[in-house]
Amino acid sequence: MLIDYHLHNHFSPDSEADTRKMVARAIEMGMHEICFTNHVETHDKQTGKAVFDPKEARERFKAIKQELDEVQAEFPQVRIKFGAELEYVPEHMEALAQFVADTPFDFILGSVHIVQSVIIASHKFAHQLYQKVGEETAYLAYFELLQKMVAWGHFDAVSHFDINKKAGVQFYGPFQPEKYKDQIRLILYAMKEKEIGLELNTKCINNRCHEIFPHPTILKWALEIGIKHFTLSSDAHKIEDVSQHIQYAFDLAKELGIPSLSTYEKRVPEPHGI
Ligand SMILES: [Zn+2]
Ligand SMILES: [Zn+2]
């Protein structure tokens, strides 16, 4: 079963993609189930801050759900789920937990894009941190936030687990997970405790760091530690990127011995053997 559980459409502050065109493309790419996971927050590029406006988010996600229901009726060939991608910003988490609880989501991704007020997920801004500090300082700060987000825990799967490497490889060379083994494994243990899943994200296979998120070594540790739920995603913001390399991620998951992929309905996971 092929799934693409991380898509952004025109309702995301960073995408203009038409929903129907994205769905048609996902079907063309052989997807059986997809999930739209628009950002809840907007990123203020000047200050590097994530802005969360509960009223704006409530209205926007209501409109997203309405559109997805319409589109689902038009495209019965694929199942379309209603999700969101959250940014870990300590001061927002109480309000975000409330927002998530009040909205009929199928699936929630937890992400860290901002470290020390710098959007490290963006090539335009990452240098503001990576040029200033060494690899260890930057990457440990990232993993510390990831750890805190998992401790918070109001989401279903960690997105792009090692996105620190996306722009990081340019400054520090290839990412070596072994250097951060203790930190990474602690996060994976905490995910297992909370039954939080892990995403295989193909967004940067063709560009930037030219690797899947997370590194296969991290996927092996996740399996060893007993993480049960895995999803596949292209993290597409444009039509042409929808579901790219999902087949590769599926084959990799199989090769590594991942026994199943999970889909989600109203936040309840359902594993499908691969
Ligand atoms: Zn993201
Ligand atoms: Zn995303």
Report what the structure shows.
By secondary structure, the chain is α/β, with parallel strands linked by helices. It has one domain: Metal-dependent hydrolases (TIM Barrel), CATH 3.20.20. It has 9 helices and 13 strands. The chain has a 7-stranded parallel β-sheet. Helix 5 packs parallel to helix 7. The longest helix has 21 residues. The radius of gyration is 17 Å and the shape is globular. The protein binds zinc ion (2 copies). One zinc ion binds next to loops.
CATH topology: TIM Barrel
Task: Give the termini distance in whole angstroms.
Answer: 7 Å
CATH architecture: Alpha-Beta Barrel
Counting DSSP E segments of at least 2 residues, the number of strands comes to 13
Q: Globular, elongated, flat, extended or rod-shaped: what is the shape?
A: globular
Low-confidence stretches: none
How many domain modules?
Answer: 1
> Largest sheet at a glance?
7 strands, parallel
What Rg is obtained from the alpha carbons, in whole angstroms? 17 Å
Strand order of the main beta sheet, please? 1-2-5-6-9-10-11
Bound molecules: zinc ion
